[in-house]
Amino acid sequence: MMNPSEGWQNGTPQASPGAPTGGAHQATRVEERAPETSQRAASDGESARAALLRVRAEVGKSIVGQDPAVTGLLIGLLADGHVLLEGVPGVAKTLLVRTLATALDLDTKRVQFTPDLMPGDITGSLIYDSRTSEFAFREGPVFTNILLADEINRTPPKTQASLLEAMEERQVSVDGVSRRLPAPFLVAATQNPVEYEGTYPLPEAQLDRFLLKLTVPLPGRDDEIEVIRRHSVGFDPRNLEAAGVRPVAGAGDVERARAAVARVAIAPEVLAYIVDLVRATRSSPSFQLGVSPRGATALLNTSRAWAWLSGRSFVTPDDVKALTLPALRHRVALRPEAQMDGVEVDDVLGGILGTVPVPR
Question: Which residues have C-beta within 8 Å of that of residue 125, sequence separation ≥ 6?
Fold first, then answer.
């Protein structure tokens, strides 16, 4: 069980048979069966949580000092959403996604987004088969459990938009035919926060489709020493098996975890707190674009997932506070004058957290 105060810091996730006959008999049987069903669901939830906590430990065999991103990706899976990872090259974003997929025993594919990438290169396309004289659909890399969209802002808007249906509807439509994607399905997209030359910034409509935006920072000194030490004794990031990374959970654990997250209670006062935070972004003088109701729903779902990962069956205001930055930072836009003054989105959101009354 994790303590939220230990697991998050500065708004970023850290490593922490037969039917009875007769109405009266049937009612009695239902009453007897309900506690058993509830106990079974609770047991499934506990086993799923234990499995996901093992995943965090397993990822640590190859990733050092990026526990916030690991937790954020797990929350993305639990809340059935997608995650945007922002960080400079070389901070193990690709390795993180590969390791997480291995520990979860899920299929993963990587697409390097480039200016000449076409939509069909991602979703798939119809290919003429000369043997049958018919067109057959060839699946693109989007048909996977975890899609790593590397440097998503380096491809033109037409190709970026090809992911919208997959992210929102969990399907791909080609030539009028819709094809379902595997479950679970998560897009982990990366972008460089520094280099903007030759890039195509994601439009607000597509940014809003990401459940979370996580910042992946450079490691601290001690963590960087550990990274170098591991490489000095033969660690090969291309060989996770040699690093000892093994599957410790699976798609079934994710499904059971999602069912448990859906049962996490949230009081009306906490729901109102979420709405008040979101509405405050719309009236902030620093923002020209505030958070939409979709953002409020994202904050609700991610707070529930974090509360469940922390071992609780209810959401607290602290859970909401912890998720506010990663769930909302990409859904707002600063006014030009605020940008010229050097104002940062996270600072404005932090100010809102400090002014909106917290329910007691």
Answer: 137, 138, 140, 174
Pairing of strands 83-86, 186-191: parallel
Cα(290)–Cα(204) distance, rounded to whole angstroms? 11
Q: How far, in Å, are 54, 72, 242, 313 from residue 4 at the CA level?
A: 18, 14, 33, 13
Q: Determine which helix (DSSP H) or strand (DSSP E) holds 13, and give its type and residue range.
A: strand 12-13
> In the numeric block, which tokens belong to residue 97?
């996604």
Q: 156, 269, 160: which is closest to 205 by C-alpha?
A: 160
Strand (E) or helix (H) holding 213:
strand 212-215
Cβ-contact 72, 13 below 8 angstroms: yes
CA distances, 31 to each of 24, 37, 98, 191, 260 (Å): 11, 10, 46, 53, 21
Q: How many CB atoms lie within 10 A of CB 11?
A: 20
State pLDDT tens for residues 221-266: 999 999 999 999 999 988 898 889 999 999 999 999 999 999 999 9
H/E run at residue 189: strand 186-191
Q: What dihedral do alpha carbons 19, 22, 25, 26 form, nearest 10°?
A: 50
The torsion region of residue 80 among left (phi > 0), alpha (psi -120 to 50) and beta comes to left
Q: Is the pLDDT of residue 142 over 60?
A: yes
The C-alpha angle with vertex 185 and arms to 184 and 190, in degrees rounded to 5, equals 140
User: What are 115-135's pLDDT values in tens digits?
Assistant: 999 999 999 988 888 888 888
Task: From residue 304, give the alpha-carbon distance in Å to each of 99, 119, 258, 322, 343.
Answer: 25, 34, 10, 11, 30
For the chain, where are the alpha helices, taking DSSP H only? 4-7, 23-59, 67-78, 93-103, 120-123, 157-161, 164-169, 204-207, 221-232, 251-262, 268-283, 293-309, 317-328, 336-340, 345-355
Burial of residue 30 (CB within 10 Å: 0-12, 13-18, 19+) is exposed
Range with lowest mean pLDDT among 70-84, 229-243, 267-281:
229-243
Largest CA distance in the chain: 75
